[in-house]
Amino acid sequence: MIFIDLENKLPTDADLPAHIRWKHDDWRAWLAESARLVGELDKLNAAGQTDERNDLIDKYSGHWGKLKPWLLALSNGKCWFTEARDIASYIDVEHFRPKKSARNIKGPKRDGYWWLAFEYMNFRIACTVPNRKKSTWFPLRYGSQHSTYGYRCEGDEIPYFLDPTNAHDVTLLSFDEEGKAVPAPGIPRWEYVRVKRTVERLKLTEHQALAEERRKVWQNTTKLISKYQQALLDMRTSAAARERAKAAARDIASLTKPDAELSAVAKWCIRLCNDQQLLRLLG
Q1: Three-class HEC string of the chain
Q2: Looking at 54-63, 81-90, 174-183, 187-196, which range is the least confident one?
């Protein structure tokens, strides 16, 4: 999982490639259309026409689909949950808070967050595996506030699932040498439970191909770390070791770049070495 600064990286951002960047007028038009659609949903919901409301969401799925190139650009084409490109199959736009109905850990389904169906801050990029497995699940901690259209309090909800647009949540998920997604060391009990629930529900460990690719990244990073550390020792007596250290450092750094697939795995491999020289390579 990688942090996505969704709030501050709009489609109009000058740093985006020209073929993806939106004109300000086009972005305002997209937002206006979103507001219009939510107004239509509100009318149907007020009339008790839930099926018609949900049909309207489906009918205009192309509206949020227009943002897919921008959302993909924010992660260099990687799934925000797995940090894979095509390992975990097709990538699509996912709604973090389910739009039609929502399921908690126990009890019946509750109404979904339909008013967020066209809210870009509720969009995430997800591979097929986490997207399908998550489905309508959105469990909240026992006693948590529950947002409704009449009482909008998403910021007060306490969800189980980790959110890639939350910089704190991203720090809670670590990896091991077998390619498994695991809780980061030393985190509080509640955060530990959140990680376990996210990993289990989104199948972040059970997908064999994904776990195998993570294991390969870990092994590759470990080998490069050994080369780097040995080169640093050899520098005391060998001038050629400087070039070996430089090359190993460059290769390690490349594994942790934003555009590198599964870069979070390489970063955790480095962090868990607890070597200050290596940590400086992370910037």
Answers
A1: CCCCCHHHCCCCCCCCCCCCCCCHHHHHHHHHHHHHHHHHHHHHHHCCCHHHHHHHHHHCHHHHHCCHHHHHHHCCCCCCCCCCCCCCCCEEEEECCCCCEEECCCCCCEECCHHHCCCHHHEEEEEHHHHHHHCCECCECCCCCCCCCCCCCHHHCCECCCCCCCHHHHCCEEECCCCCEEECCCCCHHHHHHHHHHHHHCCCCCCHHHHHHHHHHHHHHHHHHHHHHHHHHHCCCCCHHHHHHHHHHHHHHHHCCCCCCCHHHHHHHHHCCCCHHHHHHHC
A2: 81-90
The amino acid present at 3, given as its one-letter code, is: F
222, amino acid identity: T
Whole-angstrom Cα distance, residue 76 to residue 179? 22
Give pLDDT tens digits for 20-70: 999 999 999 999 999 999 999 999 999 999 999 999 999 999 999 999 999
Q: Which residues contact 123 (CB under 8 A, 6 or more apart)?
A: 6, 64, 67, 71, 93, 94, 95, 96
C-alpha–C-alpha distance, residues 146 and 132, integer Å: 23
Q: Supply the pTM of this predicted model.
A: 0.91
